[in-house]
User: Fold this.
Amino acid sequence: MNKRVFGITGWKNSGKTTLTEKLVAELVRRGWKVSTVKHAHHDFDIDKPGADSFRHRQAGATEVAIVSGVRWALMHELRGEDEPTLEAVLSRVAPCDLVLVEGYKREAHRKIETRRLEAKDRTPLSAGDPNIVAVAADFRVEGEHLPVFDLDDANSIADFIERAAGLVA
Assistant:
């Protein structure tokens, strides 16, 4: 997998989205062009009932592109197809310096594991995943063999990701 891909993984409510948001802001502030891929385990929709694009999809279109002078989006209806692999999704992401991938626990890219004390499941993922290269937690982590960061220390985590992804020496 592309060395410019780095993941943020963890159990539900472990701080993945908050950390991803902070990292995007910090890395962009540093001058990097950053894209993200977010895996959702549930049915989601980015379109609104009644909108023209929604009506196109309801009519049966497999892909609908919405384009304006400010942004564009491409929606793809699976219509019974298998969920695309992360690799397939990454192949459609425009060139950038770094893609941060939120979720995708089982994929083979380098990841940082988020842990929160209040998360329902706190079973460490790092023990069973050699692609987890660091941990970010909001509590003191004992006995971990990987680098451990404070979950709120986006600057240090961004430094680590820049080095791990080969953006800096």
Remarks:
- The chain has a mean pLDDT of 92.
- The helical segments are 16-29, 52-58, 86-90, 154-164.
- The two ends are 20 Å apart (CA to CA).
